[in-house]
Amino acid sequence: MPDVRLASPQGKWILLTTVLGSSMALLDSTVINVALPRIGRDLDANLAALQWTVNAYTLTLAGLILLGGSLGDRLGRRKVFVVGVVWFAVASLLCGLAPNTGVLIAARALQGIGGALLTPGSLALIQASFHPDDRGRAVGLWSGFGGIGAAVGPFVGGWLVDGPGWRWVFLLNVPLALVCAPIAVRHVPESADGRAHGRFDVLGAALGALALALVTYALIEARNGSLVVAVTAVAGVAAAVAFVRVEKRSPDPMMPLGIFASRQFTAVNLVTLCVYAAFGGFFFLTALQLQVVAGYSPLQAGTALLPTTALMLLFSARSGALADRIGPRIPLTVGPLLCAAAMLLMRRVGEDADYVTDVLPALLVMGAGMVALVAPLTATVLASVDTGRAGLASGINNAAARAAGLIAVAALPLLAGMGPDAYLSPAAFDDAFGRAMVWCAGVLVVGAGVAFTTVRRLPPDCRRPECRTHGSVLAPPLEPNRSAGKLGAG
């Protein structure tokens, strides 16, 4: 039985190191978009290279995050967390020193592997270390501080890009890791799940990541229309089919397919795919639009995005309480529709756009929509499965959101007709951005329709989310498994 109290010195050290670890990954996922134009100019990169700069990280993170949770349960949560922190820092150093886009993209993929180890590991450490009476408050503080990190990420990124340069967006992780890892080794108790058994589903993880990689490559390179692209697309579909077959037959699957027997769980994951595909595409392109077309500096662009995450931090807990009273169906319908309206409002953001009259209204509506839907979405995911599988359900939902963002960043420029040098031409990018916002709004309307027709009221005795405060715009919050003390293990 874990017995560390939150008020004790050890409890404060544990909270600090888990917040630092998760903040490294959160900061990196939010600041990168603001840095993209400068990266492109400095490394002479085309739009496809910028897409891969974002997607290489998301690819390995989405493909391996479930496996990362299982590794911690079996090998030791502190050990895997520390390995993830050090791995992430080394990969960040490689990103900061990258002489060209090829090295940068490869280092970003390595970063994602580190993120897949430390992201679930930070929450699992809290679950395994703190006394049950303090665990809920510890998780709340962890999610709140992490949300603040996500909120200030674009601002910090813009300040670094405008000041010492975009490389410091990555190099900043090194001193954070030098603080985080020693604290973890000295103050965090080791823990593992003695009930975890069987082999790791390495084949399933590899096939899942391979399928995402091949499909992403095909979408990014599709404008070339070559035979290689067609073959890659077919191979990606084949890898996805093989992944499903392996998971169906494996005695210890990374993603047990039986969990999708719950119609509610399947439905809410379809909603997740729609809304986070739109969010991933929106934040990728909006950071470019504000700088390339509206003429904002990186700092101005990063600061401009603060209202969305600030609203989530302030009101996500209240939104969850409202959904408890009225059920998740209405929030999961209204939220995506508000976000769709926000994306259509963003089409007004053009050359020399005024922040107060052109940009801010869209971001406030966007924030309101995200406030309405994120907490009820998480609650519905947890309520749709047995309590003992809540950690797994949360991990699958988080991975689905990241995979949706990955595909959106790959596909949206193609659907909007962006050429390889579109971000170098304000007029061309502005036209394509308007079309992209229509695509994003359409996907959100589909998500709202799925929610309205499939989501039902939650039972009164179902599990409620522990992470009530949330600030990440690219994935829903992870939730611990209360009964087993583990996250996302199959």
Structure write-up:
The protein has 490 residues and is mostly helical. It has two domains: 9-201 and 250-454, Growth Hormone, Chain: A; 202-249. The chain is 75% helix and 0% strand. The chain is built from 16 helices and no strands. It has helices at residues 9-42, 47-75, 77-97, 101-129, 132-162, 167-171, 173-187, 202-221, 227-249, 263-293, 298-304, 306-326, 329-345, 355-383, 390-415, 426-454. Helix 2 runs parallel beside helix 4. The longest helix is centred in the N-terminal third of the chain and has 34 residues, at 9-42. It is globular, with a radius of gyration of 21 Å. Mean pLDDT is 88; it is low at 483-490.
Unreliable segments of 5+ consecutive residues? 483-490
Any idea what the CATH superfamily of the largest domain is called?
MFS general substrate transporter like domains
Helix content: over 70%
The tally of domains stands at: 2
Q: What radius of gyration results from the CA coordinates?
A: 21 Å
* Strand proportion: under 5%
CATH class division of the largest domain = Mainly Alpha
Biggest sheet details: none
Keywords: Antibiotic resistance, Cell membrane, Membrane, Transmembrane, Transmembrane helix, Transport
Organism: Streptomyces cellulosae
Main location: membrane
InterPro entries: EmrB-like, MFS, MFS_dom, MFS_trans_sf
